[in-house]
Amino acid sequence: MTEFPQTLDWAHVVARYQNGADVEPIPGASTLAVTGADEEKVYVKHRLWKDALSRENLEKAVRLLGEGKMTRRSGDFVDQYRTFVADERPTTAATVLKDLGFLE
Fold first, then answer.
1. What is the extent of the structural domain holding 53?
2. Residue 2 included in any domain
3. Residue 37 lies in a domain
4. Ordered strands of the 41-45 beta sheet
5. Number of neighbours of residue 29 by Cβ within 10 angstroms
6. Of the candidates 20, 27, 9, 26, which has an alpha carbon nearest to the alpha carbon of residue 42?
7. What is the tens place of the pLDDT at every residue in 43-84?
8. Could you give the number of structural domains in the chain?
9. For the chain, what is the largest distance between any 2 Cα atoms, rounded to a whole number of angstroms?
10. Residue 101's closest CA among 23, 1, 30, 21?
11. CB-CB contact of 66 with 82 (8 Å)
């Protein structure tokens, strides 16, 4: 069994999203696009809004996933993210972390 990474390779995140990317939504979520990334945030756009996910919160979520303190199932992850990390677009965070391979 492959060991789950406990850190988020931010250079990979920036490389993946700096020029934008369409990401597949988790079940039950609306389609969104990642419009960019820099050293502190991943920028996202939905048809009704624009926002950003902070590096700090995404890194905390990955650390908790690696420690086994959060589920890797994307649907259940949303509530845990809101509770243990932040109420910062938890469904969007789940979508991005699934796209990066951290969630099922």
1. 10-99
2. no
3. yes
4. 21-23, 32-37, 41-45, 50-54
5. 17
6. 20
7. 999 989 999 999 999 999 999 999 999 999 988 999 999 999
8. 1
9. 41
10. 23
11. no
